[in-house]
Amino acid sequence: MHSSAFREHLSASAPGDDPPQGPPTGAEGWETVPRELVHRLRADDVLLTGWERVDDDRFRVSVRWPDRHDHFTPRRRQYPPQLVGETMRQATMLLAHTEYGVPLEDQFLIRDLDYRLRPDRLGVGEGPARIDAEIVCSAVRRRRGRLVAMHCRMTACRGQEVVAVAAGNVSITTAAVYRRLRHTRPPAELAAFAVPVAPERVGRTDPRHVVLAPTPQAERWQLRADPLNATLTGRARDHYSGLILMEAVYQAVLAGPGRRDFCPASFSIDFFRYADFAPPCWIEAHTVPAATPGSTTVVVTGRQEGLTVFEASVGDARAF
C-alpha cells in the first residue's frame, strides 16, 4: 500500500488525531508520509516520502534528507550521520504499520542498531538529497496474529552510490501491555533540565539540541533534555527517547579531548533497558584500540542506578 492509498485508512483508524488536510509536507515543502506512521510530532521531522513492496519482505522506501533543519543540521557542508539512524528508525515503523498491520498506538522498542556509512558521500548539494532505501525484513515473529518483533536491514543509495548500510532489531508491544509495565515510572516533569555543555563543544549551535550536562569528571556527563524540543523527545512520555540516547552518543564522542573533528563512519548501539527520567542517567565515553591503524573507536555507555541502559561504539574508519 502506498502513502496516498494509506492516508484515507489512517484518518479512519486514528480517531484521536485530526484528519490530514491534504498531503503532509516536510521541511523543504515536499510531500511526505503521514507523521503518525513514523511516530513524529512535527511534519518537518518526517524524512520519508513514499514506499512500495518489492516482494514478500523486501521494500523500497523513498527518502529526502533536508539541507536545512533545526536539529538534523548539516555540519561543514555534510549531512549529519544521525540521519542514517533516523532513516532506519522511520522506515522500520512505517513498514510495521502499513505492511505488517501494527496498530498506530502500539509501542516500539529498538533492541539494537548498527550502521556503516561513507562520509565522503554525505556532501550537501543544492536542495535536499534524494535517498533510495531498500529495506529487507526478516525474523518476523507474531503472537496471536500480531507482529511482536522483526529484524530489518537497509541499504541506502544516493544515485548509484551506496551511502550507508544498516541493520537492527525491534520489538513491539501493545499499548495496554506497555501501560501496565510502565505506569509507575517517573513523569516527564522529573527529567533533568541541567545546564548543557557549550553547544559548539558537541557540534551544535543551539543549547536546545544539547543532551549532555557537564560533571566534574572528564568524559562523564549527565543526560539532559529540553522538554520543549519535540524533535528529540518524540512520543516518549515516560522515558528518554531512543533518539536522545543516540544523540548523547554522538555528542559524547565530540565532547571528548581531541575529538572535536571526529568524523563517524560506523555506529552500533545495544539497548538494555529504558532510560527513565529519574534518577540521573550518566553518560561515559572512552577511546579504545581500533582494528584499523590510524583510526579511532570510542565506546559510550549510559548508566542509571548502576545499571547499563545502553552501550555504543563509534568509529571513524571507513567500513566499505
TrEMBL record:
Give the span(s) annotated as Disordered. 1-30
Q: Where does the A-factor biosynthesis hotdog domain start and stop, copy by copy?
A: 37-169
The cross-references to NCBIfam families, in alphabetical order and at most eight, read:
ScbA_BarX_GamBu
Instruction: Spell out the Pfam families in the cross-references.
Output: AfsA (PF03756)
At the top level, the lineage of the source is: Bacteria
Designated name of the protein:
A-factor biosynthesis protein AfsA
**For bias kind Basic and acidic residues, which ranges apply?**
1-10
